[in-house]
């Protein structure tokens, strides 16, 4: 067993767990971390990056199990709040699933480059600043208060996350705030929306790339990444909910802008970080 590879998998899992639910583009950070550490082969690393996101989303299911169960059963029993949340998650997930399956690969081919990622980071950061400086009227203080119309619009906004650098969390959280959700309810709804999207993408990628990971060592490395991402994501989720209860997202906006500018600088000058 390659202990160095295991340690790199742990680092990747921590990066995933910390960045998945922050509005700063987790995929971009994973790709950067992978390149800096020279993590695995290109094919195996690509599968790993998608698959370990399921560890982070498992943390959401663990943390919010009772509310998610209430949403699932509410659709059947008709309990108002559970039914509203359950249907909201379903309708908001449909656009990205449909568009992702039909145009996802095309978008990835055309826009998966440094400049596109940098622009996505900068534009997203500027939008966050604008939203924080022009607060919208809150009509959904809790995630169970979300309306069908709000869920549909957030689902359409989530499609923007197909563009590298945009951030699924960033798009859904800020979109939710613009539509009247509180920071807390927008953040939690973003958590929940990741469940069908990330699990579906992870399982699909594992199936399509089933020949890439071979042998017990490869699967052990993936397992380590999954477990690490689960633990780190669980800690991040709890910290983020406490954070948004008292603070805004401005620090993430400036981080996005600074990161985007640095990427553009290196892209246009040809300099290398490593």
Folded structure, characterized:
The protein has 274 residues and is mainly α. It has one domain. Helix 5 crosses helix 6. GO terms for molecular function: undecaprenyl-diphosphatase activity.
Write the layout of secondary structure elements.
Layout: H1 3-19, H2 26-37, H3 42-51, H4 53-63, H5 65-77, H6 80-111, H7 114-133, H8 148-158, H9 168-178, H10 183-208, H11 215-244, H12 250-269
Q: What integer is the average pLDDT?
A: 90
Tell me the count of domains.
1
Q: If helices are DSSP runs of H or I spanning 4 or more residues, what is the number of helices?
A: 12
Low-confidence stretches: none
What structural category characterises the helix and strand content? mainly alpha
First and last CA, distance: 27 Å
What's the count of strands?
0
Rounded radius of gyration (Å)? 18 Å
Tell me about the biggest sheet? none
Helix content: over 70%
Strand content: under 5%
Write down the secondary-structure element order: HHHHHHHHHHHH
| Morphology call | globular
Short description:
With 274 residues, the protein is mostly helical.
Essential attributes:
274 residues, mainly alpha, 12 helices
């Amino acid at each position: 067993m390659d202990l160095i590879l295991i340690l790199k998998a742990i680092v990747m899992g921590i990066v995933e767990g910390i960045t998945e639910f922050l509005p700063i583009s987790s995929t971009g950070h994973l790709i950067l971390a992978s390149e800096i550490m020279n993590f695995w082969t290109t094919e195996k690393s690509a599968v790993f990056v998608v698959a370990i996101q399921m560890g982070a989303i498992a943390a959401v299911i663990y943390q919010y199990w009772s509310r998610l169960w209430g949403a699932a059963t509410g659709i059947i029993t008709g309990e108002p709040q559970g039914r509203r949340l359950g249907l909201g998650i379903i309708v908001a997930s449909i656009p990205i699933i449909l568009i992702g399956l039909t145009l996802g690969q095309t978008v990835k081919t055309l826009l998966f480059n440094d400049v596109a990622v940098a622009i996505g980071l900068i534009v997203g950061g500027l939008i966050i600043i604008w939203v924080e400086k022009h607060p919208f009227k809150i009509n959904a203080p809790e995630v169970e208060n979300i309306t069908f119309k709000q869920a549909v619009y957030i689902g359409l906004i989530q499609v923007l996350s197909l563009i590298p650098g945009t951030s699924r969390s960033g798009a859904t959280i800020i979109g939710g705030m613009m539509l009247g959700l509180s920071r807390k309810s927008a953040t939690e709804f973003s958590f929940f929306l990741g469940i069908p999207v990330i699990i579906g993408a992870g399982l699909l990628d594992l199936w399509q790339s089933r020949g890439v990971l071979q042998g017990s060592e490869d699967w052990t490395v993936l397992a380590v990444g999954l477990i690490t991402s689960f633990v780190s994501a669980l800690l991040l989720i709890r910290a983020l909910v406490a954070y948004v209860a008292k603070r805004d997202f401005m620090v993430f906006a400036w981080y996005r802008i600074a990161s985007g500018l640095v990427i553009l600088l290196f892209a246009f000058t040809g300099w290398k970080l490593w």
